[in-house]
Amino acid sequence: MSYVDEVIEQVVKQNPAEPEFHQAVKEVLESLRVVVDANEEKFRKDALLERLVNPERQFKFRVPWVDDKGQVQVNTGYRVQFNSAIGPYKGGLRLHPSVNLGIIKFLGFEQIFKNSLTGLPIGGGKGGSDFDPKGKSDREVMAFCQSFITELYRYIGADTDVPAGDIGTGAREIGYMYGQYKRIKGVYEGVLTGKGLSYGGSLARKEATGFGLLYITAEMLKSNGQDIAGKTVAVSGSGNVAIYATQKAQELGAKVVTVSDSTGWVYDPDGIDLEALKEIKEVKRARLTEYKNYRPNSEYHDGKGVWTVKVDIALPCATQNELDLEDAKALVANGVMAVCEGANMPTTLEATEYLQKSGVYFLPGKAANAGGVATSALEMSQNSERLSWSFEEVDSKLQGIMVNIFHNLDAAAKKYGFDGNYVVGANIAGFEKVVDAMTAQGIV
Ligand code: NDP
Ligand code: 2IT
């Protein structure tokens, strides 16, 4: 059996009931076959792949907090420190009822290669909890965040592990966590990114993932002789990534006609009203059913369906496995030309394969959504030098990083004979730097 197949089999056996982690490992290792086969003897001897798929360490802890009725609630917290070969662990904290160890491991594993692709010195990690911030009062969210950090503080730090936002963790949650860390540790350091601008946050971090997604999408289209201006776009989700993807798509001259949340989706034939979307989601923290009050011409539909609309470009920006084979078929039947992942692993393996076989340009999340973590790394730099850069400076660095990522993965795909296969290109380009650093540092 080939080394890749052996390790995939081991991962499935040793990590039962973690299907998302299996999926992420399979996608990466399958596309590394050509590199692994060429170095099989050395990699096997060094157990390189076994070390890559086993986190350096992982924490699972109790998070007790008191709700507004005086009732004690208990959630489970996680932090997986996956790989520190190229820098301190870096990756977000997801707060969503679906969170379990397998979800955090898939996200942490993806983060290793994504962070490597940014070209910045950050290792891979991820964390979170099954706590659901939805429907909770600010005081309840604060109580949870303080309890979460009271346990996690001992494992994180500006030079060891730097968490940030993800689903359910935005500026409010990061603020409460930062305050509690500072109170316990008594140091003012860049231990978290995505901070507010008044206490060490970076301009353009809030916008970075969505903006970065559009910068790399535009670059990919340009290098294939296409222009994003004038294209019709379907966005899924209506959170941080979706909102700023919508904004930048509009700024680049495209028309975004959909957004969604976990209960339904909106189709606005005139193009999404960005100010209305921001007010509903960022200010009111309300549901998308409200959108019709702002735009009577729009349609609201319950449940799934965002991928049934005829568009040129699809940008999944909600969650894992939200775009399956059936969705991919609908998109292709409607003539989609590009699918670029704003979320982490939003496309199933079967759907990805189908899109690629159908000639659709497909940019995987670990490249396409890397602008968020890249700008987090820029926030770390600013915190270290105790300076803050202008919006334009951060935004222009972000653009440069996204353009570079595209050309690096495009070159890696070409070098190994997979021209146009950006999944293979991203995985190989991300992997090469990590392997180099792991090899140089010996067996650790
Ligand atoms: P938010 O919490 O701001 O928004 C998430 C959006 O996705 C919401 O509209 C939410 O709807 C929807 N959503 C979440 N879970 C589900 C689900 N199970 N089914 C259907 N819809 C769902 O998160 P972000 O925008 O920050 O994150 C979105 C994606 O982007 C995630 O995959 C995340 O890992 C990834 N990402 C985020 C980065 C960042 O900087 N924030 C960086 C790189 C990747 P509802 O409100 O109804 O729950
Ligand atoms: O998935 C991701 O890259 C993020 N949620 C952002 C991580 C970060 O450290 O900014």
List the keywords.
alpha/beta; 5-stranded mixed sheet; binds NADPH dihydro-nicotinamide-adenine-dinucleotide phosphate; Rossmann fold; 444 residues; 15% strand; 12 strands; 17 helices; 7-stranded mixed sheet
Could you explain the architecture of this structure?
There is one protein chain. With 444 residues, the protein is an alpha/beta fold. It contains 17 helices and twelve strands. It has helices spanning 3-14, 19-38, 40-45, 48-53, 101-117, 138-152, 171-185, 205-223, 240-251, 274-283, 291-294, 325-333, 349-357, 365-368, 370-385, 391-415, 422-440, and strands at 57-66, 72-83, 89-95, 123-129, 161-164, 232-235, 255-260, 264-267, 299-302, 313-315, 338-340, 361-363. The strands form two sheets. Strands 9-8-7-6-10-11-12 form a seven-stranded mixed sheet, with helices on both faces. A hairpin with a 5-residue loop joins strand 1 (57-66) and strand 2. The chain starts with a helix and ends with a helix. Bound molecules: NADPH dihydro-nicotinamide-adenine-dinucleotide phosphate (NDP) and (2Z)-2-iminopentanedioic acid.
CATH homologous superfamily annotation of the domain at 207-368: NAD(P)-binding Rossmann-like Domain
Whole-number mean pLDDT: 98
Which ligands does the model contain, each kind named once? NADPH dihydro-nicotinamide-adenine-dinucleotide phosphate, (2Z)-2-iminopentanedioic acid
CATH architecture of the domain at 207-368: 3-Layer(aba) Sandwich
CATH class of the domain at 207-368: Alpha Beta
Spatial order of strands in the largest sheet: 9-8-7-6-10-11-12
Distance between the termini: 26 Å
Proportion of β residues? 15-25%
Radius of gyration: 21 Å
Task: Please describe the biggest sheet, giving its number of strands, its sense, and whether it closes into a barrel.
Answer: 7 strands, mixed
Strand-pairing-aware structural class = alpha/beta
What is the CATH fold-level name of the domain at 207-368? Rossmann fold
Estimate the helix proportion, in percent. Answer: 40-55%
In sequence order, what are the helices and strands, one letter per element? Answer: HHHHEEEHEHEHHEHEEHHEEHEHEHHHH
Structural shape: globular
Provide a count of the helices.
17
Report the count of strand segments. Answer: 12
Spans of at least 5 consecutive residues with low confidence: none
